[in-house]
Structures are given as structure tokens and as C-alpha cells.
Amino acid sequence: MPDPMPGYDVAELRALDRQHVWHPYGPMPGRQEPLVVESASGVRLRLAEEAHGQRELVDGMASWWAALHGYRHPVLDEAVRGQLDRMSHVMFGGLTHEPAVRLSAKLVEITPEPLQHVFLSDSGSVSVEVAIKMCLQYWKSVGQPRKQRLLTWRGGYHGDTWQPMSVCDPDGGMHSLWSGRLPEQVFADAPPTGYDAEPDEAYVRHLREVIARHADEVAAVIVEPVVQNAGGMRFHSPGYLRVLRELCDDYGVLLVFDEIATGFGRTGTLFASEHAAVSPDVLCVGKALTGGYLSMAATLCTTRVAEGISSGEVPVLAHGPTYMGNPLAASVACASIDLLLSQDWQGEIKRLETGMRDGLGELVGTPGVKDVRVLGAIGVVQLDHDVDMAAATRAAVREGVWLRPFRDLVYTMPPYVTNDEDLARICRAVGAAAREG
């Protein structure tokens, strides 16, 4: 990575940041000084100034799980540059263009049958908003307007906009502030943990009872398949997805899978629902869709859902983001998907999984550690106490790694291109953060 050539004073930048910039999940003004990133390449973030003895950090977060191929990848850079020579954006209402059409066709090709139709949007939360709108409008269009509620299980997280907040965990989630104001949805108990565990019959009965009791008013069940991510990084048996598919079919309820975090290989299959060999009626993807380059998400649905909406009194899906189908984002998304599928991505995920099982496994039984779990390119250390984020972050940075712990979790979801040496460094940093956090 080249030496930085900043055209700014770092101290001035920090002062302006503190005065004007509201960072995610933080107060205004901020209480912690963010590190200033000058550039990024491969799996490394180059800081504008040294922090805790380090000038470069291995990114153990893949920029909130999106940068599958790392930074400044020549294939993805070229996709953006080439599209800039044609057009950076054009409205999608009444117009179309090759990048968006090719991306939509590609998504249909790689996602489970029978998903056939693609609505492009700007972010994961919006893709969930669109999914919910699809489900509510479907039932209204087919003459069952009472089906207006959503059903999910506790422990989930689906985004920060209004309807997605209503299906996040109502107690342990980040949105309890809005209790009593959000739409009241139906919550089943959280699924029992353990990817390899057989489905618990008592829990299966519980799911059936809850869905049966509310079937007349529930439009859709929405869950994160296999991994509940920002709600607690919990893994559950794929068998529960098969149970949900059967129950939704039995009781006339649509099924929505939120694969914003798990899509594009993160759990070891291209989409997490493939662990269960089932398909939803509606699927949300985002984050890694563009390889971490630009914000874009997509909501896919079956022909049944699309035709149901189109047969209604209002035969359109009344949603239209300004930057819908952005050509730059669509072009780099196509390039990212092609790049992923052109490689032995499953072998790389298995290599990362093995490395994290070995590296993080050393923390099992150490003081303060409640659980260690790994699935695909996800490694999680759960503490027996809430993490001190500032202390844990400092410990990781001293090891030359960027991590972002939360609640009682120190975890990593690294870029797929992370080599064995850097992965070992990430595991050491997770250990340091767990000990000092």
C-alpha cells in the first residue's frame, strides 16, 4: 500500500468529525475518536496516523460483512471505471439499462427456485421494507386484507427503518426505544442454538401453535436463515427452515428469508437457505451484493407473489427509490458475483472456517468466555459479560486488526481473500479483545 498523501490536517479532520458527523449507533457529539482511514487495499486499512503502534490494520469485519474480495480489487475497480465511461446513473422509472437487467437475471439464476422477479433498492433495510410491502399488498390484492401482521422468532435483526425494526427482537434488540410505537408483530421464541443440533420437537410444536393461532392475520413469516446476525450471532439448525416452509404452506402464510448478511457464501453455501434445501416466497439480499463497493440491495419474489400484486385493485408495487438500479452499483455487483463464482469460493470458505476453528478454539474454557462458535466465514466469541468496546477495540488494534465488538460478542467476518497468516492475526486479536474487553 503506498504511503499516504493526505491533503488535510488529521487533527482538523477529527475536530470537524466530532463537531458535525453523526456516526452509527453513537451519540452526538461522539464520545470516542474514530480512527481515520486514509486508504485501503487487499485486506488492509491504512490509517492516516499511527494508532496504538499500528499504521495498518487487517480488516476482520469486511466493512460490516460486505467486502468479500477486499479493497481495490482490480476486477471490481475496472467494472466501476468502465461504467463511468458510459453513465453513472439514470432514473429507472420508464427507463432501463444493461447493468441492472444483467444483474437481475444473474440473481434469478443463482438464487433458489422459484424466485423469478427482482426489485432493486439502495440498502438492506429498504429491501426488507419492500419485502414486507410485497407481502401485505399480495394478501390485500387477493382478497384477504386482514392478513396485515408479520411473524418472526426472537433474537433476529432486520434493519433500522420502520417496518424492519418491528420484526427485530423486541427486548434484546437495538430498537426497544420504539416499543409501543412500532407495528405490533407476532413473536415466537428464539430457535434453539446449534447448527448441528437436530430440531427440537417441543420447539417445532411451539412454532406450529404460534403460526396456527395467528394464521388468519399473519401475512408472512420473516427470519434470518441459519444465522441470526446483529441480533446476537446465534446459529440454529437448518431443519427449522424446513419446518417453517411446511408450516407456511399448511397455513397459507408467505415465507421471507433475510439473507442480507448470509448471502454470497458467508455460511459456506451460496445462500444460507441452501443448508436446508428450501426456498422462500421472498428473499432479501444486500451487503456483499456489490463486493462492498457501493450501496445496493435486492428483493426477489416468486411469480405467485408478483402476479398476485399485479391482479389487485392497485396493480403496481408502489415503491421507487431514486437510485434504484444504479448502473455503477449494478455493474460492480455483476463483476463481484462473477468473480466469486469463477473461483473455488467454497474451498476458501472452508479454509477460513478451519483456521478460525483452530485459532478461536484456543479460547474455549478461558476466563470470561462463555462460548466459541464458527460457521463458514463467521467466527464468534461470546463473553459472560457485556464487552467494553473501547478496551476491546484498543486490544485488537494493538494486534494490528480492526474489529467491531458489540453486546457480549467479539466476532469476525473477514474478507474471503484473507490469507492464513492474516487470519491467524485476526484470531489473536479476537483473543486479545476478549481478554481485555
From TrEMBL:
A GO MF label = adenosylmethionine-8-amino-7-oxononanoate transaminase activity
One Pfam family recorded for the sequence: Aminotran_3
Binding positions (substrate): W64, Y157, K287, G320, R404
**Pathway where it operates:** Cofactor biosynthesis; biotin biosynthesis; 7,8-diaminononanoate from 8-amino-7-oxononanoate (SAM route): step 1/1
Which superkingdom?
Bacteria
Q: Where in the cell is it found?
A: Cytoplasm
Q: Does the keyword GTP-binding apply?
A: no
Reported cofactor(s): pyridoxal 5'-phosphate
Q: Which residues carry this modification: N6-(pyridoxal phosphate)lysine?
A: K287
Residues annotated as binding pyridoxal 5'-phosphate: G124, S125, D258, P321, T322
Q: In this chain's numbering, which residues are marked as the site (Participates in the substrate recognition with KAPA and in a stacking interaction with the adenine ring of SAM)?
A: Y25
Which reaction(s) does its UniProt entry say it catalyses? Answer: (8S)-8-amino-7-oxononanoate + S-adenosyl-L-methionine = S-adenosyl-4-methylsulfanyl-2-oxobutanoate + (7R,8S)-7,8-diammoniononanoate
Question: Matching InterPro entries, A to Z?
Answer: Aminotrans_3 (IPR005814), Aminotrans_3_PPA_site (IPR049704), BioA (IPR005815), PyrdxlP-dep_Trfase (IPR015424), PyrdxlP-dep_Trfase_major (IPR015421), PyrdxlP-dep_Trfase_small (IPR015422)
Q: What keywords does the record list, in alphabetical order?
A: Aminotransferase, Biotin biosynthesis, Cytoplasm, Pyridoxal phosphate, S-adenosyl-L-methionine, Transferase
Q: Tell me how this protein assembles.
A: Homodimer.
What protein family does this chain belong to? Belongs to the class-III pyridoxal-phosphate-dependent aminotransferase family. BioA subfamily.
Role summary: Catalyzes the transfer of the alpha-amino group from S-adenosyl-L-methionine (SAM) to 7-keto-8-aminopelargonic acid (KAPA) to form 7,8-diaminopelargonic acid (DAPA). It is the only aminotransferase known to utilize SAM as an amino donor.
Protein name stated in the entry: Adenosylmethionine-8-amino-7-oxononanoate aminotransferase
Give the classification, highest ranks. Bacteria, Bacillati, Actinomycetota, Actinomycetes, Kitasatosporales
